[in-house]
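Hey, quick one: can you model this chain's 3D structure?
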Amino acid sequence: MGTENSERRKIEQLTADLQSIYADYGYSQFRIRKFEEYELYVRNKDFLDSVNIITFTDTNGKLMALKPDVTLSIVKNSRDVPGTVQKVYYNENIYRVSHRSHMFEELMQVGIECIGDLDYYCFYEVIMLAAKTLRRFSEDSILVVSDMDILKAIFDGYDVGEDVRRDLVRCLGEKNRHTLSMICEENDVDPACARLLSRMATVYGRPDEVLPRLLAMMKDEGISEDTVDAARQAAENLLQILDVFDDPKLQDLIRIDFSVVSDVNYYNGIVFNGFVEGLPECVISGGQYDRLMQKMKKRSRAIGFGVYMDRAARLFPAEKPYDVDVLLLYGDDTELTEVRKSVDRLVADGNSVLAQRSAPEKIRCRTKMEIRDGEVKTIETDD
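Sure thing. Here's the predicted structure for all 383 residues.
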C-alpha cells in the first residue's frame, strides 16, 4: 500500500508536469467520457494495442465499451474545419490489459493530438514535445523516428501490393530480415527492392548521417530514379523538420530507425517511439495518422503521441513499503491536547503520522511510538 501510494504520487506529479509543458505550447485539455459505443472499436480494432475490451449493455440496449484508447475518441469528436488546427492534450484513464499484470486495469494515459490543416511546424512541435517528455522521464532516453512515406515511395515504385506491404512492414518492425526476404521472393518483389528493404532493417543513427546513407544504398542497389526521387523528397522533408531542433539536449535524443513502423492502414508519414534506459518497451508511441482520419470520414490531417504511464511507473525505484512513518499510540486517559501536540511535532519534523489508541491490523510503519507518562517514547523502529 505504501509503495503503491508513493508510485501513484510520483505518477500524478509527473502527469501534472507534462500537462504544464503541453499547455505552455498552446495545447488545451480535452476531456471525454469513460465509455464509447463498442462499434467504434470494432471498426478500428487493428488500431488498438489489444483486442480485449470491457463491454456492457446500456439501458437502451446499445453495446458500449469502457474506452481502451483515447485517440479514437478525440478523432471522433474533433472539428473538421478547413484552415484550422486543433491542439489538445489529455490525461485520461483507459481500461485495457496491463503490460505488467496481464489483467484488465484502469490505466492512466497522457498524450497530445494535433489535428487539422497541419504544416511542418506542427510536425516539429509534436516531435519536440515527445523529446521534452522523454527528458522529463530521464536524460538517458532516445527518440527513434522514421517516415512511412519513404517506405511508401519504395513500395509504390515497385508496385508492391497492399497485403504484401503490411507483411513487409511487420517484418521491418521485427527486424526479421529472413522472413522479409522470403515474403519478397514468394511474391515476386523485385530483388533490388528486396535487398534494399533488408538493409534498411538494420539502419540506425543520427538523421544527418542516416538519411544520406539511405540514398546511397538506393543507388547501390540500382533502385529506379523515380523511386529514388520520391524517397529523397520524403527524406528531405523529414530532415528539414528535424533540422529545426536547436536545443542540443533534445537534438541528441533523436535517431533514425527504419524498423520503427506502424499499421499502414492507419499511419503515414512520420512515426516515432520513445525509449528510456532500463525499460525494454517504449514509453512513448506516436506518429502521423492521416489514414485513420480518412477512415473516420475526416478531411483533416493529424499527428500525436501517447505516453504509457504504466510502463513509466517502472522507472521509480521501490521504496520501503510503509503505510505511515510513525504509528503513535495513546491510552484512553491521555489528554486530547497532549495527543495533538505530539502529532504536530512529529508532522513538523517531516513524518506522516497515524495516531490511534490501538495498532490497526497489518499496519506497516517505520517507527512505532506511544505517549506514556506525558512523554512520547519509541517502542520499535525499522531504521
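One thing worth noting: The longest helix spans residues 2-24.
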